[in-house]
Amino acid sequence: MSRSNATGAAVAAVDGPIFELPEAARAWQRKMRGFVDEELIPWEVEAELHGGELPADVRARQRATALTFGLPGMDAPREHSGLALSILEQVAIYEQLGRVTNALGWCFSEAHRWMFESCSAEQIERYVKPILRGERHECYAITEAESGSDVEGIQATARRDGDDYLIDGEKWYVTGANHADFFILQAKLEGGRNHGAHALFFIEAGSPGIEMLSNPLFSHTYASHHPTYRFAAVRVPAANLIGREGDGMSYSYAWFRRERLMIAARCCGAAERLIDEATAFASQRMVSGQPIAQFQAIQFMLADCVTELWAARLMTYEAAAAHDRGADLKTLHARCSMVKLYASEMANRVADRAVQIFGGRGYMRENVAERFFRELRVDRIWEGTSEIQRLIIARGLLKRGRAGLIG
Length: 407
Ligand SMILES: Cc1cc2nc3c(=O)[nH]c(=O)nc-3n(C[C@H](O)[C@H](O)[C@H](O)COP(=O)(O)OP(=O)(O)OC[C@H]3O[C@@H](n4cnc5c(N)ncnc54)[C@H](O)[C@@H]3O)c2cc1C
Hints:
The protein has helices spanning about 25-40, 45-50, 55-70, 85-95, 115-120, 120-130, 250-285, 295-325, 330-360, 370-375, 385-405, and strands at about 1-5, 10, 140, 155-160, 165-170, 180-190, 200-205, 210-215, 230-235, 240, 285, 290. The chain is of the alpha+beta class.
C-alpha cells in the first residue's frame, strides 16, 4: 500500500508501530510484571528499613519462583537445560525487574551463554550448571583500587606454579560476594609465554589466602554487598583457568555488551514505574484547591519524563533486536554503549523530577522516588561510566563513521 506525500512522491504507509515486541517477548513481559508486582514490590520498604534483608521464607519463595521460571538459564543454551531466550526477550524480562527497588530483582544468579562457550566440561559441571540449578552463586572480581575504568591496567597477577596458578592482588566492589560460593577473577599473567596477558579464573570462596579487607556502606540499601578483598598467594588449580591464557579481556567485552543492554532495560523499567507513580500522585495531590497535575510546571516534568523514556526504550529494544539479527560485533559494542549511556542518564533525570513532583514525600525513604534517586546513580558508574561510554561511542564514530554506528 502506498500514498503520496506533499511533493507527490509515493511513500510506504505505516499501519502499525515500527517497533513492537514480538509475542514471545510480550509473554515474558506479562509474566515478569505479575511476579514483580505481586512478589517483589510489596517487600521494598521492608528491605529498605532492614539493610536490604527480607525474612528468610520470603527470600526463599522469591528465589523458588525465579527458578521455576528458569531465569538463571535465560541466556543459557537449550542443550544445557537453559531457555536460550533471544536478547529481546531477556530485555523484556530485565525491564520488568528494573521496576523494583532495593535490588529485589536480584533473586537469581545467571549462567551466561559465554560460560558454555568458554568453560571446560568439568567447569560447566562444577560451576556453571549449579548456577542454573540455583545451588551455587558467583561474583565478579575485576575492579581494583587503581583500575576501574582502565581494566587494561589491573595489577592482580596469576603466576603458574606446577599444576596451579598463584593469584595475588586486591579487588574492590565485589558485588554479591557475601552470598557467593566462588569468584570469577581477572588477573594479568606473570611470567611464561603469555606474560602480561589477561586471564579469568574460577576461585572457590573459602580458599586459603583470601581475606575480606572491608565491607563499605553504599548509597543504596541492598542485601548484596560490595566488599574489598585481598588475594595473597591463593593457589588455584590450572583447571580453573577459563578458556586459554590471554582470553580474559574478550570474555569481559562479551559480558559488558550484554550487561550494558540489561542495565538500560532496568533503567527503562525504573523510569516507567517512576512515571506511573508520579503521574498518579500528581493527579490526586491537591494544592491551592487543585491537583498539582493541573500546574504546567508539573506537566512539563511529566512530559519530559515520558518522552525520554520512549526514546530510551526504542533504542534499547532496537539494540537488542540487532543482537538477535547477528549485527556486526563492533557496531553492537558502540550501540550498547549508546543505549547504556542514554538510558541510565534518562532514568536519573526521571528520578530527580519524580522526587520534585512528590515534594517532601519524595525525600522519605519509604517513597519509591527517593529510593530510585539513590539507586539509579550507580548505573552511570558501573559497567563503564558515562564518560567511558562516550569514549567508546566517539571512537566508533571516528573509525566507522555515523553510518557504521546507526545507519
Ligand atoms: C556499587 C558498585 C558495584 C560494583 N560491582 C562491581 C563488581 O561486582 N565487580 C567489579 O569488578 N567491579 C564492580 N564495580 C566497579 C565499577 O565497575 C567501577 O567503579 C567503574 O568501572 C568505575 O571505575 P572507578 O570507580 O575506578 O572510577 P575511575 O576509573 O577512577 O573513574 C573516576 C572518574 O574519572 C572518569 N574517567 C576515567 N577514565 C576516563 C577517561 N579516559 N576519560 C574521561 N574520564 C575518565 C570516570 O568516568 C569517572 O568519572 C562496582 C562499583 C560500584 C560502585
